[in-house]
Amino acid sequence: MDIVQVIALIFALLFFMQVIFFTSRNKLQDKQAFLWIVFGIISLLIALFLPSINKFAHYIGISYMPALIFMVAFLVILNLLIYQTTVISSQQEKLKNVIQELAFLKKQIKDYIKDKEDKK
């Protein structure tokens, strides 16, 4: 195991521990935590099999292995960004519905109180 692989393994372990820490502190919901745990496991596997990834990069014609890693990381991050954007959009729609329902209920309460006062 060379120094680059050791450093990659240390960073992957730190990333994985950070995900576990945030999950245990309830800063990540289980659904979101699962996704990050999968990424943590993948990063650990990449760190462990770095020489094999280098051979694979050369096999497919990429002479500089970090270029392959950056390309894959970019695609993964782009997909994660799209997923998070859809989650945010869904949450915004739910929030809008809750706000409208709250406004409707407040109006009903206000009208009810007004009717009670008018009857007195």
UniProtKB/TrEMBL annotation:
Entries under InterPro entries matching the protein: DUF2304
Annotated signal sequence range: none
Keyword Coiled coil attributed: yes
Keyword Transmembrane helix in record: yes
Coiled coil: 88-115
Entry keywords, A to Z: Coiled coil, Membrane, Transmembrane, Transmembrane helix
Transmembrane regions listed in the UniProt entry: 6-22, 34-53, 59-82
This protein's name: DUF2304 domain-containing protein
